């Protein structure tokens, strides 16, 4: 991988090459690249998709078939691709409404449209200064660094297209993590407000209502390495700290706007664990917590999918089926609140993030609802290490 001599950041625009945490000078981006996880769109796609997701781990198809049952329950179709098509269109409509003259492309890590093919198309269309927007809001290996590795791999010549090298290279920067941007947070607030208000209006005491803010579990060792190494984030690293900070904001706002909800309590919980029992992952599991709620006098639980941007498989299967069943077994009223999806506030907020980079908005003027924000434009050195894989080349950040 070749990097310009004046660049501390691989494949970065000229404004981001210095490696400063915030890019506060305008950048004339000529395209936006929406980067997703991807998902199967038919029964024949399921196992090949899961092979892509688990590539390099040597997991046999028999074990993959255990996970495949979740997709097969929905005829082998993950909702995530249609959700990204909808988001792509909504972003393009909002960008056009603002007169920004930027086309929005979309590519995936694990299924068609594959990122490699899309990047070639972006290049062939004449675009060279691209701004990436990954469909993930928080710090961790899989939710941040792996997307940056995807960009570096695709632009490099060893495994990818080589379009980031040579005499006429493409650069791809990435918008900051948006876990505490008001546009991302607003749909979650509306969901908890509506769920709690409905139960209060029906006469249920606030102390009998519990909110569980749920996110994807990750290996504890990886969680501890999330965010920059110099950060003092406490147990679970930046990944846990960011989720807690957003949940605290949401609960504070709920209690301020609905005083009758003052006695409603909350917890941060985890879901969708996939590692071996011998490997410590973030806990507690959402289903274990739900099972114990009646002992605390709780009669109603609202699960808030705080770690997810849309209603994809982990939300539809792990929450809408498994968590709901756990609540039914515990005799609890159950609600699962919405994800951002293509909510107007979320879409507008994402375009605000694009405009931050177009305009070089100073960090001090960037909106955020927790003390942890605004997060960095350029990832800091050593952020989000994967313990199993170590550091691999990654764009939009300082090495390693």
Automatic annotation (TrEMBL):
Gene Ontology molecular-function annotations: ferrochelatase activity; metal ion binding
Protein name: Coproporphyrin III ferrochelatase
Pfam families cross-referenced by the UniProt entry: Ferrochelatase
Signal sequence range: none
Protein's job: Involved in coproporphyrin-dependent heme b biosynthesis. Catalyzes the insertion of ferrous iron into coproporphyrin III to form Fe-coproporphyrin III.
Example GO BP: heme biosynthetic process
Chief localization: cytoplasm
Family: Belongs to the ferrochelatase family.
Gene name of this polypeptide: hemH
Binding-site residues, Fe-coproporphyrin III: 78, 147
Lineage: Bacteria, Bacillati, Actinomycetota, Actinomycetes, Micrococcales
Domain of life: Bacteria
Transmembrane residue ranges: none
Top-level enzyme category: lyase
Organism: Microbacterium faecale
CDD domains: Ferrochelatase_C (cd00419), Ferrochelatase_N (cd03411)
Binding site for Fe(2+): 216, 314
Database matches in NCBIfam families: PRK00035.2-1
Gene Ontology CC annotation, any one: cytoplasm
Reactions catalysed according to its record: Fe-coproporphyrin III + 2 H(+) = coproporphyrin III + Fe(2+)
Pathway where this protein functions: Porphyrin-containing compound metabolism; protoheme biosynthesis
């Amino acid at each position: 991988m070749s990097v310009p001599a004046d660049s501390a950041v691989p494949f970065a625009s000229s404004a981001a090459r210095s490696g400063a945490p915030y890019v506060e000078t305008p950048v004339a981006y000529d395209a936006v690249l929406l980067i997703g996880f991807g998902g199967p769109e038919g029964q024949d796609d399921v196992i090949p998709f899961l092979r892509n997701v688990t590539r390099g781990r040597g997991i046999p198809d028999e074990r993959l078939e255990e996970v495949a049952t979740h997709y097969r329950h929905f005829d082998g179709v993950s909702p995530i691709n249609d959700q990204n098509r909808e988001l792509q269109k909504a972003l393009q409509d909002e960008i056009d409404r603002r007169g920004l003259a930027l086309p929005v492309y979309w590519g995936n890590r694990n299924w068609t449209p594959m990122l490699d093919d899309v990047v070639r198309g972006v290049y062939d269309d004449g675009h060279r200064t691209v701004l990436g927007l990954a469909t993930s809001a928080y710090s961790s290996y899989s939710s941040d660094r792996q997307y940056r590795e995807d960009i570096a791999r695709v632009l490099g010549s060893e495994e990818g297209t080589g379009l980031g090298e040579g005499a006429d290279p493409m650069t791809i920067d990435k918008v900051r993590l948006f876990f505490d941007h008001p546009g991302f947070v607003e749909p979650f607030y509306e969901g908890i407000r509506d769920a709690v208000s409905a139960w209060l209006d029906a006469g249920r005491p606030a102390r009998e209502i519990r909110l569980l803010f749920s996110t994807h579990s990750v290996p504890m060792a990886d969680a501890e390495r999330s965010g920059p190494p110099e950060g003092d984030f406490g147990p679970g690293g930046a990944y846990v700290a960011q989720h807690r900070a957003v949940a605290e904001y949401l609960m504070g706002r709920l209690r301020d706007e609905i005083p009758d909800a003052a006695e409603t309590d909350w917890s941060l919980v985890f879901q969708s664990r996939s590692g071996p029992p011998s490997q410590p992952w973030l806990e507690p599991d959402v289903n274990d917590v739900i099972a114990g709620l009646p002992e605390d006098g709780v009669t109603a639980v609202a699960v808030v999918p705080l770690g997810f941007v849309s209603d994809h498989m982990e939300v539809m299967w792990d929450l809408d089926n498994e968590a709901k069943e756990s609540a039914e077994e515990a005799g609890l009223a159950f609600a699962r609140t919405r994800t951002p999806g293509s909510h107007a506030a979320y879409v507008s907020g994402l375009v605000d993030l694009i405009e931050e980079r177009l305009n070089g908005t100073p960090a001090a003027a960037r909106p955020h609802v927790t003390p942890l924000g605004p997060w960095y434009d350029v990832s800091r050195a050593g952020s989000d290490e994967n313990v199993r894989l170590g550091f691999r080349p990654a764009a939009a950040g300082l090495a390693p």
